[in-house]
Amino acid sequence: MKKITSVIDAQQFDKKTIEDIFTVAGLMEKKPPKDSLKGKILATLFYEPSTRTRLSFEAAMKRLGGEVIGTENAREFSSAAKGETLEDSIKIISGYADVIVLRYNKEGGARRAQDFSRVPVINAGDGTGQHPTQALLDLYTIKKNFGKIEGLKIAMVGDLTNGRTVRSLCYFLAKHYSKNQIYFISPEQTKMKSDIKEYLDKCKVHWQEGGDLKSLLPEIDVIYQTRVQEERFKENREVYNRIFI
Question: Fewest 10 Å CB contacts: which of 11, 77, 117, 170?
């Protein structure tokens, strides 16, 4: 397995590492190694509100015998509210913990944090950038259900402009599992961004986009539904209200 320190984006993973992670995950599902992280501290630093992602990291750390420190919505309830930069916060917090799980409100936050941290940083979502750990879990779920991640028809539905999980999943699929067909289903205003489409083209992945999921349902293997990210429409409520309400 390729040695990994920080987890920043999907592109950093090679295929063997992904498959090795899946193997270990399968073994841990059957028999979790208790106390394997005893004496270690995880810091959860979330600049955006979160429930499932934050608690899943915290629950995993606890189940493996480690401890957790952290804050939710750090923009309001941390030194950030006093004007402290992300870089300065990371310098201090990396002295408290053995690993930092960071959710940041702007794209590129995890990479910035990595440059100033003395410990590994795990990207738990950075604005409209990426969410690599969620995408790894999505790949693992597909593998468990189909026994493979090839030769499938995968529909990605919803807010594809702002959905960071779907971006990471596309990077994984394009780089390592190119023999799939991807369908982007969304309103015109929330279409997948061009950088992902260009990456899919570069990797020779078949894709198409449209707005009608119903007609595709009989032939689709996987529906990946992203939520409408209402918080991304704060400066354009008129568009949000017109499309989604």
Answer: 77
